[in-house]
Structures are given as C-alpha cells and as structure tokens.
Amino acid sequence: MLSFELSRQLVCLAGKKRAKIRKTMRAVVQRVASASVEVEGRTVSAIGPGLLVLVGLHESDVDSDADYICRKVLNMRLFPNEKTGKTWDQNVIQRNYGVLLVSQFTLYGILKGNKPDFHVTMSPERAKPFYASLVDKFQKSYNSDAIKDGIFGAMMKVNLINDGPVTMQLDSSQPSRNTNDAVEEP
Asked: Which ranges are annotated Polar residues under compositional bias (predicted)?
C-alpha cells in the first residue's frame, strides 16, 4: 500500500503540466591531454591539457545561452586535485589549462531516414558572428591566450587525445529543478 503522503505527491505530479524546454546551444566537452585543429593540411590551433569543446548553435540561441555555456564549461570540475586526491575537484581555470572551441553544426542534426537534416541549426549568416561572440566571452572570462578555436565554416580535422576518457554533453536550456521556475505548456 502506498502511504498517504506518497499517494498525495503522485496526484500532485500527475496534475502538473510538463515543463516546456526550449532547445538551445549544445556543447560536447571532452577532457583532453592535447587537441588540435588542422585546415588544409596546416595546424591552425592547438592546446595541451584542457578541454575540447564542440559547439552546436540552435536557431533559437540568444546571448544568455552563450553566457551559460561559457560559465559552465569554465567551471566544470572535470580534473583531479593531486594535493587532496579528490577526483572531480578542479576546473580548467584552476589547472591553468587550455580550451579549444570548435563550431560543429552537426550537433543538431536530425536523422530523417538515413539522411541528416540540419533545419534547426542556426543559419551560417547568424551563426558566424554569434560563434565569434562566444569565443570572445570565453577569452574575457579566462586567460585569452588559453582560449583557441578552429575556423568557422571550414572543413577541419580535429585531433585529440582523450584523457580518461571524460566526455560531457551540456545544453544551455536545462529543465529547472525548481518547479516554480518551469514554463508551462498552454
């Protein structure tokens, strides 16, 4: 038998409308021993230890999405602390490591049958300046010399040596844990 309190909670949950989640910026963050980007056979960017961040821009992205991704990536505790022995204790800033940003519109690709469809990605005309402003946010929030990026719109070869491997997916519009903050569907 369900307790009275548990059954009351289930009734409350069943009566609530589902939170509407707006699709927004996506980042795939990989902890790396090193990473680099090549364009037409030459290396255009490289980092040693740090984070490789693949960035997908959605057509509905706004500046607050870029702020969120920048803040979260720079503060993700994905590195061990050798002094304390804690595994997930330090961020890229505390370790003075590099960040390599790579624009990747295919992160919002949708398979329709066997062919990918990219209709929800931000248009290249809007995405290029938006991505440049994201890179600028990272440079202003950390050591600008530690922030590297590929060439927007170019065919790139991304080389990396995973460390771990540790890979995290981050979406700027996460559902709120506080149900009072959730936007309800009509």
From this structure: 169-186
Which CATH number applies to 18-171: 3.60.10.10, 3.50.80.10, 3.30.70.360, 3.30.70.920? 3.50.80.10
Residues 6+ apart with CB under 8 A from 162: 30, 31, 32, 33
Q: Is the dihedral of CA 142, 143, 144, 145 positive or negative?
A: negative
pLDDT in tens, 106-130: 999 999 899 999 999 999 999 999 9
